[in-house]
Design goal:
Blueprint (H helix, E strand, L loop, with lengths): L1 E9 L7 H17 L4 E3 L17 H17 L6 E10 L2 E10 L2 E7 L20 E5 L2 E7 L2 E5 L2 E7 L12 E5 L8 H15 L3 E5 L17 E4 L2 E5 L8 E9 L27 H26 L3 E5 L4 H16 L7 E5 L7 H13 L3 E4 L3 H10 L9 H22 L1 E5 L3 H6 L12 E2 L6 H15 L2 H8 L19 H5 L2 H13 L4 H11 L6 H17 L1 H4 L28 H6 L3
């Protein structure tokens, strides 16, 4: 029986700033060595950052990466540790995503990634099967170059791999070092744990699964830094997540001479056939998911604010559900950054459709959390504007509604400029699917934390926080009808404009959205499944009616989704037009709608 101290490093980095990253990695390596670690790894492309995009095509970045590697090698020459650095490298005019292996300060090998998880990677990196070649790196000739690298030190055998790979198994190794950059989405932790357990069992080895952290870009996804060490199908330890300062994970593993030949398979995924496919039925799992989502949102926002050097967050607080969740996310982000809540500017902007209930709840919520509340009445500004463009008083057309949404956005944007702040968006995934937003009104912000949260799940997240805080205000907001409040209240001062009466039940629309985007189901397949699932709630005619509404609005609204702010991905369904769901704005969806009645 042998023992080896393992070190997994998720350093604090700055994207494409190799000089900063090199220093950060060296400091983390020194701490790991002082802790007794003998095998130390960073995550995939840590030296440059994983999310550098087209900068990977720039020789300037690649040359700096080589210089950084050389500096790290020099800094580790007086140790007996093996250090593995995720980085890009140019080999014979081709750029590879890989990892450099340094042993006691000597660069021994470069391992290139063999299986790409995203098509986007092929835009930057060469996809080749490479076996036992020799290259020049950092001016050193005859460096080993391969998709897989096996070496032995002090009687322990190691293999190094970049990226997920269920297909390649190693024989007679003790430790598998696996560098990844896996986004933090719902279910992602379970997938990583499953992968680590399966691969540790199938390779009969300890696996070091080192994942990208919160320093990475938040343009479309968040990286949590969730890293895992597993052995023989069991998880030995996991790292903390969502730490803006980076994380380190150490573990002293025991290496056994016994072999375990039983193989295990990854679990098969199944279609989620429930009324609310975005919402777990199990209460414990639902609570876990809600907490994970707000961590993703808050980490993304904190990272973005730090990067943008923004002092304050500015958001419209209407007293409705969506802006409430965005507000709670901002509060959580400020906790992560250790910033005063007085730097959160919550703006409530009463206008023609605002009711006393929502106005009071917005003010109460802001005061409960001790933020900077601004009340800016926009009725006069909207009245002047409507008069200027020839809209007579009493005309409550779509122009009347949209003018209010755009005035609110203008106020928030200009206030953010004045206060060196970021405007935080509040629109959710379900609204994006239906185009239920005003173009360049609530459609626009500087960063949208809710963009990938469906309406049916959003309610549970707020409900979870309401339970923990026992806030009567949050509970009343949860009981408030969903409305944009752009039309005047009824004669009793209550909300007259109710969203679900106009566009249909979000319960149905989220069901349609999930199966249309996640499983690429045809309209007929969605209809037949919905008829069975909702047979006790909606008639076939009702389901058909709202499915046609969904399809018509979904296709028409693509022009809005093609120009939206950055936002963090939450789960397997996202309408981010840059990364996930790509479609021209002028797609003709009439064939899809006709299929419902076929």
């Amino acid at each position: 029986m042998k023992k080896i101290k393992l070190g997994l490093l998720v350093p604090k980095i700055k994207l494409a700033n190799v000089k900063f990253n090199t220093e950060s990695i060296i400091n983390d390596i020194k701490a790991a060595v002082a802790n007794g670690a003998k095998i130390i790894t960073t995550y995939e492309l840590a030296l440059t950052g994983f999310c550098c995009g087209d900068l990977f095509k720039h020789d300037f970045l690649l040359k700096n990466a080589e210089a950084g590697l050389k500096e790290i090698a020099e800094a580790t020459k007086d140790t007996d540790a093996v250090v593995i650095i995720g980085m890009p490298a140019k080999v014979d005019e081709e750029t590879y995503n890989g990892a450099a292996i340094i042993d006691s300060g000597e660069i021994k090998a470069f391992v290139s990634k063999e299986q790409f998880t995203e098509d986007e990677e092929t835009r930057y990196f060469t996809f080749d099967t490479v076996r036992n070649q020799k290259i020049s790196l950092c001016g050193i000739e005859k460096i080993d170059f391969s998709n897989e690298y096996i070496f032995k030190k002090d009687g322990i055998s190691y293999a190094v791999r970049v990226g997920y790979n269920y297909e390649t198994e190693f024989e007679n190794i003790d430790v598998l070092v696996n560098l990844i950059a896996d986004p933090a989405i719902i279910g992602g932790d379970d997938n990583r744990l499953e992968y680590a357990m399966v691969e540790s069992k199938n390779n009969n080895a300890v696996i070091m699964l080192c994942n990208a952290g919160s320093s990475e870009s938040t343009s479309s996804v968040v990286y949590s830094g969730h890293s895992v060490i597993a052995k023989n199908g069991k998880v030995l330890c996991e790292s903390e997540k969502y730490n803006l300062e980076g994380t380190k994970l150490y573990y002293e593993a025991e290496i056994s001479d016994e072999e375990e030949n039983t193989k295990i398979r990854a679990k098969e995924k199944i279609v989620n056939l429930t009324e609310s496919p975005f919402v777990p039925k199990d209460e414990v799992e639902r609570t876990k998911r809600c907490k994970e989502i707000i961590e993703i949102q808050a980490t993304a926002l904190a990272r973005r604010m730090i990067h943008a050097h923004s002092d304050k967050a500015v958001l419209g607080l209407s007293g409705g559900l969506d802006s409430t969740l965005a507000f709670l996310v901002v509060v959580k982000a400020f906790e992560k950054m250790n910033r005063d809540r007085k730097n959160i500017i919550a703006v409530t902007m009463p206008c023609f459709g605002t009711t006393g209930r929502t106005f009071d709840n917005a003010c109460k919520l802001a005061n409960e959390y001790g933020v900077d509340l601004r009340i800016i009445d926009i009725k006069e500004a909207c009245s002047v504007h409507l008069k200027d463009i020839g809209i007579e008083w009493g005309d409550t057309s779509i122009t009347y509604e949209n003018a209010q949404a755009r005035e609110r956005t203008q106020v928030l944007m200009d206030l953010a400029n004045k206060e060196n702040g970021l405007v935080i968006g509040t629109g959710n995934l379900s609204e994006a699917a239906l185009g239920w937003c005003t173009y360049n009104g609530d459609h626009m912000s500087m960063y949208n934390v809710n963009a990938n949260v469906p309406k049916t799940l959003l309610r549970y997240i707020v409900e979870e926080i309401a339970k923990e805080s026992n806030s009567a205000t949050l509970k009343d907001i949860l009981d408030t009808p969903i409305s944009p409040e752009l039309l005047p209240p009824d004669e009793n001062g209550n909300i007259a404009q109710k969203t679900e009466e106009q566009v249909g039940p979000y319960l149905l629309h989220d069901f349609f959205l999930y199966h249309f985007v996640r499983w690429h189901a045809s309209p007929k397949e969605i209809l037949e499944t919905a008829k069975e699932i909702f047979k006790d709630k909606y008639s076939e005619d009702e389901i058909k009616r709202w499915l046609k509404v969904f399809l018509r609005k979904f296709f028409i609204a693509q022009f809005k989704r093609n120009c939206v702010p950055d936002s963090p991905k939450i789960g397997s369904v996202s309408l981010n037009s840059k990364e996930d769901f790509r479609m021209p704005s002028d797609i003709d969806g009439s064939m899809w709608e006709a299929e419902v009645d076929a």
